[in-house]
Description:
Elements: H1 3-8, H2 12-21, E1 24-25, H3 36-48, E2 52-55, E3 64-67, H4 69-87
Antiparallel strand pairs: 1-3, 2-3
Helix pairs in contact: 2-4
Amino acid sequence: MNGVELLSERHIVGMIVMLAESDRRESDFLVLSNSYYIIRDKVTLLMDAGIIEPFEVERSRGRWYRLTPKGIETAKHLRICCDLIDDGN
């Protein structure tokens, strides 16, 4: 899947923006979709693209994810795009 296809997927941009703010548990993404299966599919797409990676948190339930260096760079560019759109210029 190329970049345009990935970013066109529903919830993907929202997930990247959420992860740019802080590391997240998989269940945190349920604010975007109430379907665990949809979220699981999107997480897999982002991992396959090298945008996010899982990591362990001691004494915590659930799966945790963070942006990879590629994901951090992607999130920076998305933030620039969002800011341009929000400014209305």
